[in-house]
Design goal:
single chain, mainly alpha, globular
Length: about 70
Amino acid sequence: MDAALCDHHAGDTAQGCRRAIDALIELPTDQRTGLVRTRATDLLRHIPSSRTGERTVTDLRELLRT
């Protein structure tokens, strides 16, 4: 998740979201909790509203809903 946040802060939000999604998908659903979930949620909170409709942002948001 740290790499995902770094990608976003470096200006590549789509790559950051893809990294976060990949990291979450590798984990069983019951392990997508705690710090891992918090860091992914932090990434979403740092994304400006003008970009929240982008596919990778939407995909990350949907994955976190599960």
